[in-house]
Amino acid sequence: MTMTLYMHPVSTASRPVRLFIAEKKIPIAEKVVDLMTGEHYKDEYTAINPSRMVPTLVDGDFRLTESAAILRFLASEAKAPEYPSDNRKRAKVDEALDWFNTQFYRDFAYGLLYPQVFPNHKRPTDEHQTGTIKWGLDKAKVWFAVLDKDIIGSQQYVTGDQISIADYFGACIATAGELIGCTYEGFPNVQRWLGNVKKLPSWPTINEVMYGFASSMKGKDFVNL
Question: The whole model's pTM is what?
Fold first, then answer.
């Protein structure tokens, strides 16, 4: 039985999984869950994922509903070098995945990015909206500085000079900032790192819809970094 990935091509959390699948040529069927029309709130999908989010990986009665967990599972199954078998090296990849998935994702995406892009994330008053975005920007600058200086530094990737699933995950979160025109000026190591990840052959195809969405918003006045 072929596994199925329920996803949306613009979804920040779906893109790293889809990128890894494409790079490793893993035979997985894809099913789009239309977030823009609220399909993820309908009974058919909530029966699959009660959290009403994407992605979800389904293999018979086995289901995974978190992007980082799906990456770990697929990489383990494929015995991919992007998730090393050495316990200490794997622990560093896990550490980076968890770092991206906590404060970095919360403050950058949910604090700065999403309230400016998606109507359902916009705060109820102008005062709340402005305060949320300022908070998100201030916090995001802190996390990008840590990422630039302390995590990447002189390395090519976040855990060393070999790409890992933490790079797939983190780069897709970071590049979501391109929706609001982020250039990551002042963070040269981040810029270099993103350039490295974007060299993956499948990057243009997997991110085509996201970049189309970004193009549709060019000219709008966003707060960014």
Answer: 0.96
Structural domains in the chain (count): 2
pLDDT in tens, 82-130: 999 999 999 999 999 999 999 999 999 999 999 999 999 999 999 999 9
Amino acid at 76: S
Cβ-defined contacts of 181-184 (< 8 Å, 24+): 181/218, 181/222, 181/224, 182/224, 182/225, 183/224, 184/144, 184/225
The residue range of the domain holding 48 is 3-77
Nearest to 118 by CA among 40, 225, 56: 40
Can you tell me which residue has the tokens 């997997």? 206
The owner of tokens 């993103």 is: 194
8 A C-beta contact, residue 71 and residue 169: yes
Does some domain include residue 224?
no
As beta bridge partners, residue 62 has 59
